[in-house]
Here is the input.
Amino acid sequence: MNKKVINIIEYAVIIVAVILIRTFIITPARVDGASMEPTLYNNNYVLVNKLDYTLNGLNRFDIIVIKYNNRKIVKRVIGLPFEYVSYKNNKLYINKKEYKESFKKSDISDFNLESIGYLKIPGDKYFVIGDNRENSLDSRSIGLISKEDIIGKVGIRIYPLNKISTIK
Here is the structure.
């Protein structure tokens, strides 16, 4: 084979590999707005790990990217399937047990699942919220998030370059 054909084949393999990685493993996403401050800020770019989410599912307090109204939004998982979530006096309760939240920026008004029409989170849904509680489009207003609308877990902030870090 001549060298030109080999180069074309090499480039084709690289392109296919990049497409497969982006489709099934990792994809970038941009944070839009202030709802995740102080953890993530407007115009931060993150890498979303689709494979980890697919293999290991979600845990409480994971940060995820969700498809919502033809855009991607970034939120924190608070309530898992079959749980009861409430906030009282600015404290989080899951199944009536208090959980500490060290990452929130602002206070939250009292809330319970009944206010959005549920007694418990159904098996294919999640309760998500932004860290900046006063400035967040989240499950309190848009309802529970379906499993099929979750793109993946946020793993790393890649931009701005001086803020590159893993996200917990």
Remarks:
- The two ends are 49 Å apart (CA to CA).
- The CA atoms of residues 46 and 157 lie 4 Å apart.
- The chain is about 20% helix and 35% strand.
- The longest strand covers residues 150-159.
